[in-house]
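request received
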Amino acid sequence: MIIPCPSCKKKFEVEASLIPNEGKMLQCGFCSEKWFFKKEPKKKVIKEVKKIIDKTTEKIHKNVPDSTEKIINEAEKAITKKNSKINNTNSVNILSFLVVFIISAIAIIILADTFKNSIKIFIPGFDIVLSNLYESFNDVFLFFKDLLN
Ligand SMILES: [Zn+2]
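response:
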């Protein structure tokens, strides 16, 4: 770590492990200035990082449109309904599972699309993956449409 002398401003390269956390008296080799040096506590850095994360999370929450939350709620309701139905009749209906799965997939894709710009920062090319997902999902949708007709 680099420690500057508070008097003559000369910078000294000091092994960080030589400075205890509670601080140490140092003396400048140039101007003989003596001063008490204390390392910047790591807690402060962690606090700053936490602040940034909190701010980003808040921003993302603000960007979620009401319609997305509605769709997620509907999907959750549908899953609960189907689950209780399955438990009651004790028979696993593959079709209802698929319906729930598709609704959940739609919700996830809409959610991913909403966060597209945020996720893009962390995962480059995410929007390309998303558009591929759209396409394959559309294929599945068309397949079921054909099946029903
Ligand atoms: Zn000095």
